[in-house]
Amino acid sequence: MDSTTSIPDVIAPSTLLFRVGGVLYGCDINAALEIIPLRATTRLPGAPAYVRGLINVRGVIVTVLDLGVRLDESRAPVSEGSILLVRHRERLVGVAVEEVVDVRGLEIDQSRAGESSAVGPLGGGTIVAGVATVGDGTVIVLDLEVLVRQVLLS
Predict the structure, then answer these.
(1) What is the pTM of this model?
(2) What is the share, in percent, of the chain residues with pLDDT greater than 70?
């Protein structure tokens, strides 16, 4: 591969689409083990604003992250929506989103992974897996496993 060859697009047969702050995001459907309704959390003293708190899911304590606040600290916390359950090693982590929209096959442009301004300073090509188009809109495809890993290591 020479330096003029771009990273090829990837056809993702199953991308979970969801909204946060009016922006359409997506992730690999296999990253989300389960989708549950948003529920009250027990706040952790001293935790960053994007850590909503803890919930109990069938006897397992789950840390819930607010995706909107994590991507943009000036956003209000998600008040209604869903929690995507993501496994990181042996831990189960929840990611709160405003609305789960659809599951679709998308052609993801990985060469535009670091371009999205809707992800703010966290983008840097790390949590953004690429960009896709749905109808006349743009979908920012996130790597939720990288996002969760960043949070757990910070």
Answers:
(1) 0.83
(2) 81
Q: How far apart are CA 93 and CA 34, in angstroms?
A: 11
Helix (H, G, I), strand (E, B) or coil at 107: strand
Report, as ranges of residue numbers, the positions in the chain whose pLDDT lies below 70. Answer: 1-13, 111-125, 154
Judge whether 19 and 101 are in contact, CB under 8 Å.
yes
Q: Which CATH superfamily is domain 10-153 in?
A: CheA-289, Domain 4 (2.40.50.180)
d(CA 22, CA 76): 12
Task: Select from 106, 107, 149 the least CA-distant residue to 126.
Answer: 149
Three-class secondary structure of residue 97 per DSSP: strand
